[in-house]
Amino acid sequence: MKIITGLRLAITLLLAALILLVPAWIALPFRQPLRTRIMTYPFQFFSYLLGWVFGVRLTADGHQHTRGALMKNHLFISNHLSLADTPLLLSLSPYPFIGKKEVLSVPIIAFAGNVGGNLLFDRKDPEDRKRVQRAAVQRMREVSSIYLFPEGTRSKTGEPKPEPHWGLIWTAWQENIGVVPIAIFGSEKILEQLTTRVWIKYGQPLLPADFPTKEQFATACWQRVCVMFEELKTSAETLISGVAVRPAQDSGQ
């Protein structure tokens, strides 16, 4: 499996060079709104191909309503299970991400992501977090919506963390920016298996005007992520169980 994973990662870099590098250089001289527009579809196509390379069988629901009016002024929040979460989401709705500066070590992809509008921060520097929060609000107002993994790091248990980082969700309430909750289930197994089933669900946006305080708003947003995760988990387990028992049922006929 290590050999297959290494081959898949090599193909990933090759695809990045073929699909992302030229559009990124073309977009680089322009201002951010146009940069983001130029990089949107190359990133979506690249991410779609990665799903094929890594053998992902993706079931997605609700991403259809993340187009049009949600192009700006919305924050997308999701639980975080795997490095694959980012391309999976980009293959559905290709918006920039907020992430940690460590991703700068990824060749080509990090450069193209920065051109496309990703915002990176130093997790050890509270002031840098505040800088990115301010920049994120401006980007959501003027350029496009943005993805965020509020947990900060990938879950070690496979379950959403009970207490994510609230900062940018609080800021969204203060700035009257809607939050779209997203749940991902199954992606933590992608690097360990030849094929993997993954489920993603986008919820309807939660609006700050419906909540009297930033704390209530943030809690409701994250609770929605957790509820949708449990729904996906139940659906996946039911499907897997049904597939598992079907041969025994068939053999009895």
Automatic annotation (TrEMBL):
Keywords: Acyltransferase, Lipid biosynthesis, Lipid metabolism, Membrane, Transferase, Transmembrane, Transmembrane helix. InterPro entries: Plipid/glycerol_acylTrfase. The keyword Nucleotide-binding does not apply. SMART domains: PlsC. PANTHER family: 1-ACYL-SN-GLYCEROL-3-PHOSPHATE ACYLTRANSFERASE, 1-ACYL-SN-GLYCEROL-3-PHOSPHATE ACYLTRANSFERASE-RELATED. It comes from the Bacteria. This is 1-acyl-sn-glycerol-3-phosphate acyltransferase. GO terms for molecular function: acyltransferase activity. The chain crosses the membrane at residues 39-60, 81-98, 104-121. CDD domains: LPLAT_AGPAT-like (cd07989). Signal peptide: none annotated. Pathway: Lipid metabolism. Residues 74-187 form the Phospholipid/glycerol acyltransferase domain.
